[in-house]
Write a structure and sequence with these properties.
258 residues; 10 helices
Length: 258
């Protein structure tokens, strides 16, 4: 394997590890890793390739969370459906923008996301929340617009959006964080598939690199889910460390592409 192949494999492990460990955020590192680590020189190809890897890595992480019973499937379905509409629009807009401009905006987004992640999440108060006929009138007006907005960002930047989906689900339904993390992975996979399909149809996916991302991500996701259980007491510290890293990488990406 070449150095670039090893870098792609290692990138997949890192993305899967973060997704499995804290339920979101790993995907936002995918594009910088592919551009600056693997050496993909087109921002659009990096975004399309990242979307394939993010989708597969989310599915790998989802399996463990589903077995643990941490997925609210009806809420996930509605949020994902709204997100897919937004991602389709966002992907079309992203492909129309110049690669360097896209990277600058991506770097600024990373910095904003890092700052949001530094805020403490408040504990949720409704562990038994369900989307049913009785609760639809209360939950749907929250799930649909938040899902649409997250989908727009995910499609435009080629990210899974877990760092936005988790707080979005909590705001819409008041489900506990562990359920929001598991449920978010359904949405991440759906949005990743939408973005990946859009870019693939435009020939903007490096399939060899995508396969290496998927392979590394599967291993990283299993490790992340296992480590998440072991490090549950230190999850807040891990999230803050990761947030600081996202801010630093985002600043570099924005400045390097001015």
């Amino acid at each position: 394997m070449s150095v670039a192949d090893l870098a792609a494999l290692g990138s997949g492990v890192l993305i899967g590890l973060i997704l499995g460990l804290i339920g979101g955020g790993g995907s936002i590192l995918a594009v910088p890793l592919l551009v600056y680590g693997v050496g993909l020189h087109s921002a659009h190809i990096a975004i399309g390739t990242a979307a394939v890897g993010v989708m597969a890595n989310a599915l790998a992480s989802l399996a463990g969370h589903a077995r643990a019973g941490h997925v609210k499937w009806p809420c996930a379905s509605v949020f994902a459906a709204a997100g897919v509409v937004g991602a389709s629009i966002g992907a079309a807009a992203g492909k129309a923008l110049g690669g360097q401009q896209l990277l600058v905006l991506f770097g600024l987004l990373m910095m904003g996301v890092g700052l949001v992640m530094l805020r403490r999440r408040r504990g949720a108060a409704a562990p038994d929340v369900r989307l049913t006929r009785d609760t639809a009138s209360r939950l749907l007006p929250r799930l649909v617009p938040i899902g649409l907005a997250v989908g727009l960002a995910a499609g435009f930047f080629g990210i899974g959006g877990g760092f936005l989906i988790v707080p979005g689900l909590i705001a819409a339904t008041a489900m506990p964080v562990e359920f929001a993390v598991g449920t978010s992975l359904v949405v991440v996979a759906a949005l990743g598939l939408t973005t990946a399909t859009s870019y693939a149809l435009s020939g903007l996916v490096d399939w060899r690199v995508a396969a290496l991302l998927v392979g590394g991500g599967a291993a990283g996701a299993m490790l992340g889910v296992w480590a998440g259980g072991r490090l549950a007491r230190h999850k807040g510290l891990l999230e803050r460390f990761f947030a600081a890293m996202v801010i630093a990488v985002g600043g570099y990406v924005a400045i390097a592409n001015r």
